[in-house]
């Protein structure tokens, strides 16, 4: 990718409970012989000068050589992971993605990064919803995130109205070939199977 990536930290959010996956770590599911975690780390290492994994269960990611950050506000969801990553970021923006997105597309990510400007965040709209866990955030919103977490307002939908968001329309995104794949996530065994994925025997 081009110069858009140079001042951005790539962040993998790996803090979910995976209740719909029977408690198994979704990032360790394998598709085409490679775990989602390894696929995402490989992509991010090509795109970003710094890559962080926000998780409170670091062992599987340390085995992949990842740099780990732990939540300062444990149990507070993705917003806490973004907060932890921002505290460790060496760059003024972070691109965050959930750990269960096996089809993340470099072209789509670059499209979002090239929109970095005055807005505090660049958040895609897709399938009549928003994708705040496939988005860009400026480090200057860290105090707003911390305030939300301290107040117990931990949902992304509670945080976004506090900041200036550049919402990328679905019409714009549909012009990009890789968008549908990039936003695909696997929350259930059925969704994983539909992509040809599986857990290795004994993985919990």
Share of helix, binned: 25-40%
Runs in which pLDDT lies below 50 for 5 or more consecutive residues are 18-22
Radius of gyration: 16 Å
Give the oligomeric state of the chains in this entry, treating copies of one chain as homo and distinct chains as hetero.
single chain
DSSP strand count: 11
CATH class: Alpha Beta
Whole-number tally of structural domains: 1
Element pattern in H and E:
EEEHEHEHEHEEEHHEHHHE
Q: What proportion of the residues form beta strands (DSSP E)?
A: 15-25%
How would you characterize this protein structure?
The protein has 204 residues and is an alpha/beta fold. The protein has one domain (3-192): Spore Coat Polysaccharide Biosynthesis Protein SpsA, Chain A. It is built from nine helices and eleven strands. It has helices at residues 36-47, 59-62, 78-88, 106-113, 142-150, 156-159, 170-173, 179-182, 189-194, and strands at 8-13, 30-31, 34-35, 50-54, 67-69, 93-98, 121-126, 129-130, 134-138, 165-168, 197-198. The strands form two sheets. Strands 1, 4, 5, 6, 7, 8, 9 and 10 form an eight-stranded mixed β-sheet that branches. Strand 4, helix 2 (59-62) and strand 5 form a beta-alpha-beta unit. Helix 3 crosses helix 5 (142-150). It starts with 7 loop residues before the first strand and ends in a 6-residue tail after the last strand.
